[in-house]
Amino acid sequence: MQKRCITLILSLTLVGVLCAQGPINGFMPKPGQVDLAFTYSQETFDEFFDQNGDKVNRNIDATSYNIFLEYGADERTSIVFTAPYINNDEDNRGWQDASIWLKYRNDRTERENGYHNFITAIGLSFPMSRYANDNLRAIGRRATTFQGRFGWQYDAKYGWFVQVQSGVDFQMAPEAQAAVPILVRAGMGTRFYYFDLWLEQYQGLQSSNNGNNLASGAGSTWTRAGGTFYVPVQRWLGVFAGGALVLGGKNIGQSTRWNVGVVFRAGQ
Questions:
Q1: Is the pLDDT of residue 9 over 60?
Q2: CA nearest 52: which of 214, 225, 244, 252?
Q3: What's the CA dihedral at 206, 212, 214, 220 to 10 degrees?
Q4: In this structure, are strands 77-89 and 114-127 parallel, antiparallel, or unpaired?
Q5: DSSP symbols for 5-58
Q6: Does position 8 have pLDDT exceeding 90, yes or no?
Q7: Is it the case that residue 245 has pLDDT exceeding 90?
Q8: Are 14 and 22 in contact, with CB atoms under 8 Å apart?
Q9: Are 16 and 64 in contact (CB under 8 A)?
Q10: What's 74's DSSP letter?
Q11: Helix (H) and strand (E) counts in the chain
Q12: Dihedral through CA 78, CA 200, CA 19, CA 47, nearest 10?
């Protein structure tokens, strides 16, 4: 039950409002297993870090509804799909950018007190609708982005884990831009609860003036911290809550975010 709890909740690193941490973790579902999660999020900010990292007075109160699905194709491989619906205001709302990933476990090595896991994933994100992308409060840039991730995770046999993940995001359209994400996460899961804390650094490799669009992404830089708390209800059902705070950056709002959600599992 303990391992099942951890695997289930770490499938919930959904793509949230204004580019939260991504959907790849260090655990693999069983072959034929399906994890389906629905998340409701609220994100708000009154100040925006401009292209120089200086604060300017701009604000957003955004709501998002996120769908996450992971299917275990075999012992080493899974397919991940995400789809967010974002509402910034009456004129800027709709299905934003979906992503689809192929996730592969390169190796799982047992040690006396735990396991070392090495994961590689490649993904593609693309706009799901022709949402407006030419105004200050647009929900995104209508970008097409290739994403690659490599991660190491240590799972202790008595519940706690540590994960480090990095890679590259390469935006191919509407303009070529690249960024490097780094994510560090630690937490613990038992049969009664799960919690984690994480820190994310996202570094755009090209300078970008995002003054006409508050949506972050390629060309942006940020440091963000957050956490998640999860409670299993049944073997096939769980609920969770979480939050995050932007600590600094460029071309991103100094936002706070909270979310709640429910998870369903089939084929376990």
A1: no
A2: 252
A3: 0
A4: unpaired
A5: HHHHHGGG----TTS-S-S--S--PPTT-EEEEEEEEEEEEEEEE-TTS-EEEE
A6: no
A7: yes
A8: no
A9: yes
A10: S
A11: 1, 14
A12: 170
Residues 128/83, Cβ–Cβ less than 8 Å = yes
- Read off the pLDDT of residues 40-72 as tens digits, 9 standing for 90 and up: 999 999 999 988 889 999 999 999 999 999 999
Residue 173 pLDDT grade (very low, low, confident, very high; cuts 50, 70, 90): confident
* Residue 80 pLDDT grade (very low, low, confident, very high; cuts 50, 70, 90): very high
With CA atoms as reference, report the closest residue to 45 among 35, 55, 58. 58
Answer left, alpha or beta for residue 219, where phi above 0 means left and psi between -120 and 50 means alpha: left
Q: Are 109 and 116 in contact (CB under 8 A)?
A: yes
Residue type, 262: V
3-state secondary structure of 4: helix
Distance of alpha carbon 68 from its chain centroid, rounded?
A: 10
